[in-house]
Structures are given as C-alpha cells and as structure tokens.
TrEMBL record:
Keywords for the protein's UniProt record, in alphabetical order: Membrane, Transmembrane, Transmembrane helix
Keyword Transmembrane helix: yes
Compartments, as annotated in UniProt: Membrane
Membrane-spanning residues: 38-60, 81-99, 111-134, 146-163, 183-202, 223-248, 268-296, 308-326, 332-355, 367-389
Main location group: membrane
InterPro entries registered for this protein in UniProt: NRAMP_fam
GO term, biological process aspect, one: iron ion transmembrane transport
Name of the protein: Divalent metal cation transporter
Length: 397
C-alpha cells in the first residue's frame, strides 16, 4: 500500500512539476494580453493549443519512459553530438527564462509586502535553494509544486467569480471564433511545452524509476493530466481577463495580469495577484533549475554526483543577474527565439527514436501520436525560423 501511495505521489508530482513550470510570469502575461486582443475568440486559440500540447508531450514522455533514457542521451543515439547541442540550448534558455522567473517572484513579494523586487528575488531564491538541499529533495519538490499549483488555481477561480465573464459567448467563440491568431497558437504551445518545460515531468518520472513499457499507461495519463492542469489555469485566467475586458475596462499595459486581478476584485484582488505571481514564478524557478540540470547530469560522473550543487549554482546565477543587471530584454528575446527551435528539434528526434529498435526495443509507437507530433514539429519549426529570420534582425538594428 505504501509503495502504491509513493508511486501515486511521484506521478502527481510530475504532473504539477510540468504544469507549474509552464505557469510562470510569461504565461500570466501572454494569456492576459491575448485575451485583450482576441476577446472571447481566444478560447479557440486555447483549445487548439491544448490539442497540440498533448500531441507534443504524450510523444516525448512515452519515448523517454520506454527508452529509459533522458532526452539528450536519446538525441545522441539518433545523431552523435545532437544531444549536446539540445542540452546547451535547454540550459541557456532555462537560465535566461529563470532570470524572468526570479524577477517575477520578486515582484510577487513586492506586491504582498512592499519589499523591493530585488530583495524579494533573493528571498525567493533562498526558498528554492532550501528545497534542493533537504535530504528528500524530490519529495519536497513534488509537494511544493502541488500545494502552490492548487493555490494558484483556487485564487484565480475566485477572481473569475468576481469578474463575471460572459461564459456563453466564451463557449460559442471557442468553437466558432470571430478571428484566429496563428501566432498566438504557436506562442501558447511554445509557452506550455517549449524549451525545458515538457521534459520536466518526463525526466522526473525517469529519476523516480517510473519507466519501461509496463509504465506507459500511467506515463501517458500523467502527461495528459499535466497539460490539463496547466490548461485549467490558462482557461481560468482567460475567463477572468475576459470578464474585465467585456465590461469595457482598460488593462494596464505595464502589468496586464495585475490589473485584471485588481479590476475584478479590488485591492484584495491585487494582493491575490501577488500570491499567484509569486507561486507561478517560484515553482517555475524550481522546475527550470531541476530540468535544466537533468540535461547535463549524464555527461560526466562529477556532474551526476554533485547535481544538487549545480542546481543551486543555477539558481544563484540567475538571481545575481536579475539583482545586478535586471532583465536583459534583448538577450532574453534572442534566447527565447532560439528556445523556440528546441521543441521541433527535440520532438522530431523523439519521433525518429520511436522507430529505432536500438533505442526502444520492440515497442510499437501509436501512429496517431506520430502524426500529432509531426504536425507540432512542422508548425513550431516554421514559426521559430520565421521569428529568427524576420523579427529578430529588426530588434537588433
């Protein structure tokens, strides 16, 4: 019974690690801004992105489980050296986005207690570091992300209730949108399963020993559930913002998600935003640090042995950059664009690996998953390349 409960805890931990890794400061801002632009039709964007997210994540988690190897090792077997390239991009992207995550945590504390964002970031970093220094770090990480994930959803649900969104219109426009924003779909997919995020839960299950063909039903269910948790938060935030926008109220461009909470529920709502922002940011700090380091652990026995020390260094480095430099916007955008290419490359590699007997043995990968994955690869590759070629040069002129 205890063994079964422990396995359930690990599966649930992987679900919330992935989901809360996706729900960061950028997630909150993207959802609010796109709701302001597309109104109820943003529901259609969310629906399509959920389908694509499931296609990407179910493929990746299953292939990691059945091969019993981390993504970078699978990539190196498909094409020698490719695993090092992907790992490099993941770590760079994770570090860049972690600067934003630490900053978001600092902002959350600033809203709650009036402390400076820099000092709030340092306090948050210390909390994140403590999680990885305790004896049962994995268990602590699982419980931490679960509790804060539930808190975020619960508080946002309250704000939805106070915002009184037009639910009927939201349902209709989710099926029959007035307008479709292709870039919004790709942005949401990248923000949910892009970069390190989709690998967080898959690598967590592998580290906890949940792997092999016999575990595939549980792994698939866990992968889809993780998308479900992240999507539930996305839907609630969309409805809260829609309720505010539908009343003709204008969101503050400097901090759109904060203004949604404040306009919907007054000063209490603003304080609730502080809690949600801190919870979203700190869990993303934990997820980013853990997952980024899983991509280099297998490269050398020294890194494997002292991986917790490297996780701590990762958190300290991103905190120091935020405190002393701030958020280097152009660098973040550049790394973000490069990170957008990680998903099509890594997912493409996984789909190839699924048909190599040297990697997956006699496992037969479902055709529908391959087709789903292929669509995500093509879509994300096109948009990633388009951004690098057409949009980034303008930024650096």
């Amino acid at each position: 019974m205890e063994k079964k409960n422990n396995k359930w805890r690990i599966l649930l931990g992987a679900v919330f690690l992935m989901a809360t890794s996706a729900i960061g400061p950028g997630f909150l801002t993207q959802t609010t801004v796109f709701t302001q632009q597309l109104a109820a039709s943003f529901g259609f964007v969310i629906l399509i992105s959920i389908i694509l997210d499931i296609g990407a994540q179910a493929n990746i988690w299953r292939i990691i489980a059945v091969s019993e190897k981390r993504a970078q090792d699978i990539a190196n077997e498909v094409l020698p050296g490719l695993g090092y390239v992907i790992a490099g991009l993941i770590v760079l992207g994770g570090l860049a986005f972690n600067i934003g995550n630490v900053g978001g945590a600092g902002l959350g504390i600033n809203v709650l207690f009036g402390m400076s964002a820099e000092m709030g970031a340092i306090v948050s970093a210390v909390i994140a570091i403590i999680i990885f220094l305790v004896k049962e770090a994995g268990k602590m990480m699982d419980r931490f992300t679960q509790i804060l994930g539930i808190v975020m959803i619960g508080l946002t649900l309250y704000v939805v209730w106070t915002a009184h969104p037009p639910l009927g219109e939201a349902v209709v426009r989710t099926i029959v949108p007035e307008k479709v924003d292709f870039l919004a779909i790709v942005t949401l997919v990248g923000g949910t399963v892009g970069g390190y995020i989709t690998f967080s839960g898959g690598h967590r299950l592998l580290d906890a020993g949940i792997k092999g063909k016999n575990s595939l039903p549980e792994v698939t269910k866990s992968a889809i559930s993780a998308i479900g948790v992240a999507s539930l938060m996305r839907i609630l935030l969309f409805l809260a913002a829609l309720g505010v926008v539908a009343q003709g109220l204008t969101l503050d461009e400097a901090n759109p998600p904060a203004s949604v909470f404040r306009l919907a529920a007054g000063e209490i709502g603003y304080k609730l935003f502080g809690i949600v922002m801190w919870a979203a940011a700190i869990t993303s700090v934990v997820g980013s640090a853990y997952t980024s380091m899983t991509f280099i652990r297998t490269f050398h026995p020294f890194i494997e042995k002292y991986h917790r020390f490297f996780i701590v260094l990762f958190i300290i480095a991103s905190t120091l950059v935020f405190v002393f430099i701030g958020r280097p916007v152009k660098t973040l955008i550049l790394v973000g664009a490069l990170n957008g290419l990680v998903l099509p490359v890594s997912l493409g590699v996984m789909l190839i690996a699924a048909y190599k007997r040297t990697i997956v043995g006699d496992y037969k990968h479902p055709l529908w998953l391959t087709i789903f994955g292929g669509i995500v690869v093509i879509l994300m590759a096109y948009m990633g390349i388009y951004t690098l070629v057409h949009q980034l040069p303008q930024l650096f002129e």
